[in-house]
Structures are given as structure tokens and as C-alpha cells.
Specification:
Blueprint lengths: L3 H5 L1 H10 L2 H4 L8 H9 L5 H13 L3 H8 L9 H9 L1 H12 L10 H4 L6 H5 L17 H7 L2 E6 L7 H7 L3 E7 L2 H8 L9 E5 L16 H4 L5 E7 L10 H11 E12 L4 H4 L11 E3 L5 E3 L3 H10 L3 E13 L6 E12 L3
Parallel strand pairs: 1-2, 1-4, 2-3, 4-5
Antiparallel strand pairs: 5-9, 6-7, 8-9
Helix pairs in contact: 8-13
The protein binds S-adenosylmethionine.
Length: about 350
């Protein structure tokens, strides 16, 4: 459990961790990709620029055959088994490193959630979802998670909350929500706790490996079911999180989420879809079999299908309310290049 000091003065505690504690001893985890990168530098036919150009050409032309071809990896040697194990079992170290390097600056606030997940928003926001909403007022408030969660009308659990780019905008837009966040990376949770808006009195975050119960990776981590009473959560969100978890662990993770949801409670998912630009542009040396890849920093990237996601949720007892691909065009502000993206998005309900 987080110490009272950490809850009361999260920024001070986070800075102390960084400068006196864990930070001083930290060494970046290794990946198998160093040799691959050296090879790539010598071979102009395998540059990341070329891989991006090929992927963009296929997607922009809507050439499904070329898209499928770029996803066919059987001719490639997959990442060695022992490294695959390391990326899955040791994911915490890679995510901690990710947040050490990028701090709070990597992900953008997900304001679009107001429109995408209407169930989470009050009527006045739905009537004008793009209207400005004020930042949360912060105070020195210490939160008793259980008391607050039980007393608050609507409990939102954000799984894999990172530094709060989903959680905080949702709390801003809906004053009736009480937000609970958890993430595998204690670094990310420390950064979230160091934000002024975290101390709004409606928010609590803790490190947790959501694939695991009591066998958490460190004494600092807590199982979902230890922190939240069974049947206490109204809504849960999984935003680009299942793609970071080995698919073999998806079912056990969803079972754990099902048990903390209220009957009738819902899970909202948005994640990378199969055929997304990010999948097509992966070069050699990243493929782990099927639609699973590892990024250069050692974090997993699994690309999901709508039918696979639906099946996994339904197999553990959820009812699918919706589940479909969303196609989007994102413009790179620096280069002006239009990048077609594929997400998969769904809402799943625990039967009443
Ligand atoms: C791609 S990031 C998305 C972050 C955030 N949901 C957002 O959309 O901005 C994936 C997040 O999932 C977290 N994560 C990965 N595996 C996890 C696990 N087993 N339990 C909890 N969180 C996990 C990572 O630490 C990381 O913060």
C-alpha cells in the first residue's frame, strides 16, 4: 500500500524516489535489437523510412493485398523464444524505462473519450463534447480509496492508466465520477501522483499488474481485488493496454476485471487494430509470431481483431454491446503526412 506520505505529498515523494532512491541505481533493461539495428544501418533497403513509405503507400491506396503482404512475416525469423519470455515476463522494467525517458510528455490528453464513450459522460457534455472544461482544482486532500469509492455514485477504473491522459480528462468532464487508476509501471503512477490535478479529491492511483492476483511483482504493487471490493466498479477502461499484454494473459485479466465490476457495469476498450500502420511498418527483428511484435524499447505491441476481442470477452462471461474497427487519419504536424490508422473499439457489459 502507498505510504501516507506518498498519498499526502505525492510530488515530494516522487522527486525523492527519483533523486535519492530507485533512480540512482537504475540501469536500462537490454533488448535483443542492438545487433539488428547495426545491420539495418548498413542496409539501405531496410531503413525505417523505407518501411514507413511502403506501409503508407499500401494503406493510402487501400490496397488490401499489399496490406496483407506487409503483415505476412513467415519468411522472417521471429524474436528468439528466451527474449520473447523476457519481454512478456519482464514488461514492468521496459515500461518503467519508457516513463523514465519520456516522463509525462509522451501521450496526449485523450479528450476524444468524451465522444467515443458516451456512457461515461453527462448529458450537457454529450450535447457539446468539444466545449472547454476547466482543469480540476487541487488541494492537499488525502483520499481513503474504499470510503470514497463506496460513497461516490459512479466509479471509473482506468486499467493501465499511465500518467493519467485518459483518467484526468474524464474526471474534468464528468464531476460525478470517482477515478481509480492502476498501472504496471510504478514510475508512471508516480508521475500521475505528482500532477496537481491528482489531488482533486476524486482520484486514486496505485501500481498493479492487472494480469496477476496476489503474486504481484513488487511489494509496492497491489492486486485489483485487494484494492477494490468485488462488484464496486461502474465502468472500466482499457485504452491501448491489451496490446501491451501477452494475449495468453488476456482471459485471466478480463476475469479479474469482471469480478470488480458491478452487475451491469461496463468495460470500454480502444486499441491497435490488425492492419494498423504501426504493424505494417515494423521492420525485421521485431516479429514475435502472429500479430505480436516488440518495439525497439522492449514494450509489446499486439494488434487486435474485432472478432478476437469479442470472443475473448464473451468467453469470460461479458456481453458485447459493440465491437468494431475504427479507421482514422492522423496528420503528422511536423511533416504534414497523412497517416491512416486502424483502431479496434468495443464496449462490453457484465450481465446484470
Ligand atoms: C500504450 S500505454 C497506454 C497508456 C494509457 N492507457 C493511454 O492510453 O494513454 C500501455 C500502458 O499499459 C501499462 N501496462 C502494460 N502491462 C500492464 C499490466 N500487466 N498491468 C497493468 N498495466 C500494464 C503500461 O505500463 C502502459 O502504461
Amino acid at each position: 500500500m502507498a505510504s501516507t506520505e506518498e498519498l499526502q505529498w505525492p510530488l515530494a515523494a516522487y522527486r525523492r524516489r527519483q533523486h535519492e532512491g530507485v533512480g540512482a541505481k537504475w540501469r536500462a533493461p537490454r533488448t535483443h535489437l542492438h545487433a539488428e539495428m547495426v545491420k539495418k544501418r548498413r542496409d539501405p533497403t531496410r531503413s525505417p523510412k523505407r518501411e514507413l513509405e511502403e506501409a503508407l503507400r499500401a494503406l493510402q491506396a487501400g490496397d488490401l493485398q499489399a496490406v496483407e503482404q506487409l503483415m505476412q512475416r513467415e519468411h522472417e525469423t521471429p524474436v528468439p523464444e528466451d527474449w520473447q519470455r523476457r519481454y512478456c515476463d519482464g514488461a514492468r522494467a521496459y515500461w518503467d524505462q519508457f516513463y523514465r525517458e519520456r516522463t509525462v510528455n509522451f501521450f496526449k490528453d485523450r479528450h476524444y473519450l468524451r465522444e467515443e464513450f458516451a456512457e461515461l459522460m453527462p448529458a450537457h457534455v454529450l450535447a457539446d463534447p468539444k466545449r472547454w472544461v476547466d482543469e480540476l482544482e487541487s488541494g492537499p486532500e488525502v483520499i481513503d480509496l474504499k470510503k470514497a469509492a463506496l460513497e461516490t455514485k459512479t466509479v471509473l477504473l482506468e486499467l493501465g492508466c499511465a500518467v493519467g491522459n485518459g483518467l484526468i480528462p474524464m474526471l474534468r468532464a464528468n464531476p460525478d465520477l470517482f477515478g481509480v487508476g492502476c498501472d504496471l509501471s510504478a514510475e508512471a503512477v508516480g508521475l500521475l501522483r505528482s500532477k496537481d490535478e491528482y489531488r482533486c479529491g476524486r482520484c486514486f492511483a496505485f501500481p498493479s499488474d492487472i494480469t496477476k492476483g496476489a503474486d504481484q511483482p513488487t511489494a509496492e504493487h497491489r492486486a485489483l481485488e485487494e484494492q477494490l471490493p468485488a462488484g464496486s466498479v461502474d465502468f472500466a477502461t482499457l485504452l491501448f493496454v491489451l496490446s501491451a499484454i501477452d494475449p495468453e494473459q488476456h482471459s485471466q485479466t478480463l476475469q479479474r476485471i469482471l469480478s470488480v465490476l458491478k452487475p451491469g457495469g461496463m468495460v470500454m476498450v480502444r486499441d491497435y487494430g490488425r492492419g494498423d500502420l504501426a504493424q505494417l511498418r515494423f521492420g525485421a527483428g521485431h516479429w514475435m509470431g502472429g500479430d505480436r511484435y516488440v518495439r525497439g524499447d522492449g514494450t509489446l505491441a499486439v494488434f487486435l481483431t474485432d472478432s478476437g476481442l469479442r470472443e475473448t470477452f464473451e468467453a469470460v462471461g461479458f456481453v458485447s454491446l459493440s465491437c468494431e474497427y475504427k479507421r482514422n487519419e492522423v496528420v503528422n504536424r511536423g511533416t504534414g503526412v497523412v497517416m491512416p490508422r486502424v483502431w479496434v473499439q468495443g464496449t462490453f457489459q457484465r450481465p446484470a
